[in-house]
Recover the amino acids of this structure.
């Protein structure tokens, strides 16, 4: 499986406006402090984490 696009909103530093992020085979997240890089990784961990203690997003 390859993720090609992530749409995120209402999660941590992301507001109610949906943000679409395109991904390729090799993607890096570069940006200033407080732009949502860590929040994006945390959202992906919630969606694809293997721990059953992690709540999944819908």
């Amino acid at each position: 499986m390859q993720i090609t696009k992530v749409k995120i909103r209402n999660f941590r530093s992301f507001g109610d406006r949906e943000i679409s992020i395109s991904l390729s085979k090799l993607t890096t997240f570069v940006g200033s402090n407080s732009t949502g890089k860590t929040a994006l990784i945390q959202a992906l961990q919630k969606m694809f984490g293997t721990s059953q203690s992690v709540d999944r997003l819908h």
Notes: DSSP finds one helix and two strands in the chain.
